[in-house]
Give the backbone structure.
Amino acid sequence: MSADELKRAAAWAAVERVRSGMVLGLGTGSTTTHAIHRLGELWQRGALCDLVGIPTSERTRALAEQYRLPLATLAEKPRVDLAIDGADEVDANLELIKGLGGALLREKEVARAAAELVIIVDEGKLVERLGTRAPVPVEVALADVERAAQRLRALGGAPSLRGGATPYVTDNGNAILDFHVAGGIADPAALAAALDACAEVRAHGLFLGLASEVIVAGQHGLRYLRRGPRR
Ligand code: 5RP
């Protein structure tokens, strides 16, 4: 199977968790795109009804609108039954790096509001240590880029401004500093706490204690990795 077929397999398996009447967090990225296509088909066929989706990006909103899925904001629907999203790295404790697709701020808000967060990945996203393949995306106001970069360097890593001379701008009008940690992140909780303590940081891509399940598609089939009740 190609990488894209693996992503689709994980996405379709996650959509099997969806029941009529749910408020759904709709993630962002190529894997989640498969889930939204599947959801949209089931919705249009009448196999699922009374759904409300909370999109985590304008891209996702546009895709869901193609299927006429009813959409709302977190302010309108603060309790999310199930969120489905992708990830850039997943470790053995179901801790994640997200945000290479640039939607981390809304993704984290939706993940925190969700009773269940199901993460869908192909097996290439599994890592022993977070930060070994992907940087940690850090969203900051455009005006704060320099100060935030200094703080990140003081934390022992190397920030690079996404987009360089033409900075990438998120749906929230912010920039992203991709924070590279040589050798990976020894203590994700400590780094997350340090990032949370930086006034310039609007959101970061360490999603710790949030995923309730990770569905991994590999050449030998699907694996369902589950964690116990939310901490
Ligand atoms: C977007 C994300 C994505 O979920 C993550 O980048 C994975 O994307 P893909 O499914 O395309 O590999 O965090 O902000």
